[in-house]
Amino acid sequence: MKERRNAEMKKRIILVVLLVSIFVCCGVVSVFRGEAQAGPPSEIVVNLIGDITGPYAPSTGAACLFAIKDMEKYINSHGGVRGVKIRFVVHDTRNKRDVAISKYAEISAQKPPLIVVLQVADVEVLKERLAEDKIPALGVGGTDKTNWPVGWVFQTTPAYNDQFALFLDWLRSDWKKTGRIKLALVCPDFPYGHSIFTPTVDDYIKKKDIDVVAKEFFPPFDLDATTQFGRVARSKPDVIYSMTIAGQVRVALKGAESAGLIESVLYGMGCWGIDRTTAKLTGGLMEGVVGVAPVWLPSETHIPMIKELVDNFEKEKRPPENNNGPYAIHCIVKVIAAEALSKTVERVGWDKLNGEEVYKTLVGTKEWKVLGVMPFQFGTNSRCSLFGRMVKIKSGEPVPISSWLPCPDMRPVQFR
Amino acid sequence: MRPSGVFDERYEDDIAIVRTKSHWGLLFALLGLLFTLPSILTPHFLATANHIGISIIACQGLSILMGYTGQMSIGHAAFMMVGAYTAGILSAKAGWPFLITIPVSGLSAGVVGLIFGIPSIRIKGFYLAMATLSAQFIIPWLIDHVRVDITGGVFSLVVPPPKLGGIVFNTQFKMFYLIMPIVILITFFAKNLVRSVIGRAFVAIRDNDLAAEVMGINVFRYKLLSFFICSFFAGVAGALWAYWLRAINTEHFTLKESVWYIGMIITGGMGSTAGTIFGVIYVTMLDEFARVIAPHLGGVLPPTASVGAELALQPIFFGIGILLFVIFEPRGIAHRWEMFKAYYRLWPFSY
Question: What pTM value is reported for the model?
Answer without folding.
Answer: 0.88
